[in-house]
Amino acid sequence: MRIAILGAMREEITPFLKKFPNYTQEEVGGNTFYKIAYREHELVLAYSKIGKVHSALSASSMILKFGCEKLIFSGVAGGLNPKLKVGDLIIASKLCQYDVDITAFGHPLGFIPESSVYIYPDSQLNAIAQEVAQQKGIALMEGVIASGDSFVASSEKKKWLIKNFQADAVEMEGASVANVCHLLKVPFCILRSISDSADGEADVSFDEFLEHAAQTSADFVEAMLEKLLPQFT
Ligand code: 4EH
Description:
Elements: E1 2-7, H1 10-19, E2 23-28, E3 31-38, E4 41-47, H2 52-65, E5 70-79, E6 89-97, H3 123-136, E7 140-147, H4 155-165, E8 169-171, H5 174-183, E9 188-196, H6 202-228
Parallel strand pairs: 1-4, 1-5, 5-9, 6-7, 7-8
Antiparallel strand pairs: 2-3, 3-4, 5-8, 6-9
Helix pairs in contact: 1-6, 2-5, 3-6
This protein binds ligand 4EH.
Ligand 4EH binds at residues 8-9, 50, 76-78, 151-153, 170-173, 195-196, 198, 202, 206.
């Protein structure tokens, strides 16, 4: 089985490269893809660069060029749900692009014709994540992740995201990756650890907790691989 592990920022992928230092690398479309032999399987790692366009390209490359059969996104997010504190984990129950707006034509916010407001991850991958959480004795929220091409750093924008999309966390890549995987029929999940609360202090919190939160997410994904891959040997 060939599994894609995707992040957006270099800091989100560095923890994996430290865990698996024996890789070969290949450049496609401005990204470096790191190929790792993992037991009888193969991992393909990359960070896309920030935003929905970059992450859509990287996910597409991983699937169409590298033949990845499942995709796990690992990274950090801004917390919207007050239950989410810095370092906590969330796995997407569904994802939306909050910055899509063709409401002028009577469509709901976030809706694109022939698509849908929300895209749903693979239930098997999400179930494995919940098993890992139970085993580690940690709480894993399953909630709505809203993606858009902005770093959210205000309580007004937070309120808007909660009101319009019932969002629990915000980031800049999950929904685009979800769209690509959905359309190409590749099972995926989007896991994020909270780096900030997307409020007026988000920038300071982000700088302080990026590394820690990225590590938390990567450690969790590693445990997921251990549960997932024996099923495919
Ligand atoms: O990849 C982008 C990074 C922020 S932009 C989305 N990532 C981090 C998740 C995230 C996020 N997204 C939107 C964490 N907190 C978020 C928030 N709003 N509040 C960036 C650019 N340069 C340096 C650092 N970050």
